[in-house]
Amino acid sequence: WGNLKDGNMLYEGSLAPLPGTTTRVRTRLSFFHVSKDTVRQFSERTPDGGKTWVTNYDLIYTRRNP
After folding, report:
1. 3-state secondary structure 23-36
2. Taking a C-beta distance cutoff of 8 angstroms, is the pair 62, 38 a contact?
3. Separation between Cα atoms, residue 52 and residue 40, nearest integer Å
4. Which element (helix H / strand E) includes 59?
5. Which of 2, 37, 55, 59 is deepest in the core (most CB within 10 A)?
6. What gap in Å lies between CA 46 and CA 39, rounded to an integer?
7. pTM score
8. What does the pLDDT look like over 9-66, one tens digit per residue?
């Protein structure tokens, strides 16, 4: 599920359990407008129900010149 907040796209959900565990992993994914040709994608997961968050990845996408 997700929505727009302050001009950014924010999503939350859950992933299948990690190997050796039985609990689904709560995650959140954010897309930030950096510039006309650049977007940042930031992914996090929480091991403790949302008290703390760990970075999965932090990516920057830049439009390629045609």
Report:
1. CCEEEEEEEEEEEC
2. yes
3. 21
4. strand 54-62
5. 2
6. 23
7. 0.82
8. 999 999 898 899 898 999 999 999 999 999 999 999 998 889 999 999 999 999 998 8
Question: Counting every residue, how long is the chain?
Answer: 66
Structure tokens at 58: 């932090």
Beta carbons within 10 angstroms of residue 4's beta carbon: 9
Nearest one of 55, 42, 46, 41 to 14, comparing CA atoms: 46
Place of tokens 């010149």: 65
Q: Are 6 and 18 in contact (CB under 8 A)?
A: no
Amino acid type, 17: P
Structure tokens at 55: 């970075």
Residue type, 25: V
Task: Give the residue carrying structure tokens 């008290």.
Answer: 51
